[in-house]
Specification:
Layout: H1 2-5, H2 15-36, H3 50-75, H4 84-104, H5 106-109, H6 118-159, E1 172-175, E2 184-187, E3 191-197, E4 200-205, E5 209-213, H7 217-223, E6 230-234, E7 237-240, E8 246-250, E9 253-257, E10 263-266, H8 271-280
Antiparallel strand pairs: 1-2, 3-4, 3-7, 4-5, 6-7, 8-9, 9-10
Helix pairs in contact: 2-3, 3-4, 4-6
């Protein structure tokens, strides 16, 4: 179960995408309430029509969701490390706030003297989490399976191009680091991949050699920008496309295997660039 919740998951909460999601949720939640009436409704207690009240509930959900997204974008800098546990935790918090908000508007929509009782606070939160939680679980599970199928197919398509190989051509690139005395010449034929560690870079070469250089991955990438077979595939990784032995897709994206034990992950947002370079490297 822990492994499941630690799975990587796309971050859908940029403002544009969130507005689209909110509109869809607004429409679906309104239709769901009208068509199924998931909880018992006493029409004599309603100040307005059930349709209008359903719309009010959906508007509250829309406002709370967009406000939560805004706060999330302000306070969370690293959106590339979004996982399922973050997704469920964030949405559970949103549902909790929506439940409290629905409780706070009870006086506006219900003809009851005890609208502010603790019983109704618990009831509103419970109903929101039950319905919303079920929908979130179903939609998230479907989306994971959808992503899995997409990336498995992508992995197979890319893996099939590995049959064509390039002849090795001796090529050296002079790399400048943040320490002049530590500058070095990189033989691209021996270069496997590089892994970022803050201001240092671990450079993995053939024959199990590893260089540790004081250079950012961005600077390293820029100095190798003219090399068609070198590709940035992750915020922490740059790889030599010629050393990839297998490409595997799963629900988290793509994995680039360079031997039987080690693989490099591909960030979802960098998949199009990797895919283009990988398919065209032999042209």
């Amino acid at each position: 179960m822990r492994k499941y919740f630690n799975l990587s998951y796309p971050f859908y909460y940029d403002i544009k995408t969130s507005i689209i999601i909110s509109i869809l949720v607004f429409i679906l939640s309104t239709l769901f309430s009208i068509l199924f009436e998931p909880f018992e409704v006493n029409y004599k207690e309603l100040k307005f029509s059930f349709l209008f009240i359903s719309i009010i509930h959906s508007v509250v959900s829309f406002i709370v969701f967009m406000f939560s997204v805004f706060v999330l974008n302000v306070f969370r800098d690293n959106k590339n490390e979004w996982k399922l546990k973050n997704e469920f935790s964030f949405l559970f918090l949103v549902l909790l706030i929506i439940g409290v908000s629905q409780f706070l508007i009870r006086d506006f929509i219900y003809l009851k003297d005890d609208n502010w009782s603790f019983k109704y606070l618990v009831e509103e939160i419970r109903n929101t989490i039950l319905v919303g939680g079920l929908l979130i679980f179903v939609i998230t599970s479907i989306n994971i399976e959808r992503l899995k199928n997409i990336y498995i197919k992508k992995g197979k398509d890319l893996d099939s191009t590995l049959n064509a190989t390039l002849n090795k051509v001796e090529k050296h690139i002079e790399i400048k680091t943040q320490v002049i005395s530590d500058d070095f010449s990189l033989n691209l034929n021996n270069f496997l991949y590089a892994k970022s560690d803050k201001n240092y870079l671990e450079i993995y070469l053939e024959d199990n050699l590893v260089l540790l250089k004081r250079i950012t991955i961005k600077s390293f990438e820029e100095q190798l920008s003219d090399c068609a077979n070198i590709c940035r595939v992750h915020r922490s990784y740059i790889i030599n496309l010629k050393v990839i032995k297998k490409v595997i897709g799963n629900s988290q994206g793509l994995q680039l295997w360079i031997n039987d034990k080690d693989y490099i992950p591909v960030s979802r947002k960098l998949i199009p660039e990797f895919e283009y370079k990988f398919k065209n490297q032999n042209l």
